[in-house]
Here is the input.
Amino acid sequence: MKSLVVYYSETGNTEKVAKAITAAIAGDIKRIEETKPGELADYDLIFIGTPVHGSRPAKKIEDFLDELPELSGKKAAAFCTTHLWGDKTTFGIIKEKVEKKGIIFIDGFSCLGWSRLVGNFGPRIFNRGRPNEEDLRKAVEFAKRVGGS
Here is the structure.
């Protein structure tokens, strides 16, 4: 089965998970900015990675998924890094968008990611050191489980 990991990462959190998944499945990896939607037709299984923005996938991921051609029979799985929550809604949005293109959505994986928020309380760092080795081990387990589907 030919697999691709396509992802968007701002701080490196999602990229770490993308690299762990790619190593586990011995697939190809591409940043979303380097990928044309039509290229996905060359793959049987597509992993889609995104940070969570306001309980949604990053806009670049949503726009990319909207531009996908019909890909009936292909399979997809999603992964995300999150400040605290929003992963379930993010996976729901990705699932809906890929299924509109005929892609079978298998499952999703999420973990915490280092995040920085600035508000009227000043800058704050959250989830320092995440994703950590345990998160990446779980990402590998997810990839192997999904890759065998």
